[in-house]
Amino acid sequence: MYDMDHYEFLNAYLQPDEYVLWQGKPGKGNVFQAADVYLTFFALIWLAFCAVWEFTAIQGGAPILFILWGVPFILIGLYLLFGRVIKRLVLRKRTFYVVTNRRIIVKAGNNMQMYEKDDLPSMQIKLQKNGSGTIFFHEQMYTYRGRVRSTFCILENLPDVVQAQNAINQMMQGEE
Fold this sequence. Notes:
three-stranded antiparallel beta sheet; 41% helix; 28% strand; elongated
């Protein structure tokens, strides 16, 4: 069975013949992703440019409009540098993963996504040195009009990645 304290939302979404095979949360650590290197570098350049703009506007005695013009850009730079990571940490505390005999349910904050087992592409697993891991389901399909349609499901930073993988394998095989 599942922990009622954190998974009470689940009762409304389980079908009569559906049951939980595994449940979990993202673990602590591994906050940074590969794309963060480039975005952090960009954020530093952005923030430096905005800071020079503000400093020049203030030192040059520019009108208040010029000084205020730079404030939103500085706030954007601060968000790019720090806010994304803080937001990711806060959302991670409110994220829950559930594998049932029919589907994967991901609840992140107030958003919930459900992935039926028949719609999931093949599973990919990225293991960390500490034994935790992330399970990906990613597929891109190109339509005849040249558009890309993708399926993406992620169960990130799982301390018990092997148990989650076993539950997903059990779900995919349709074992009852």
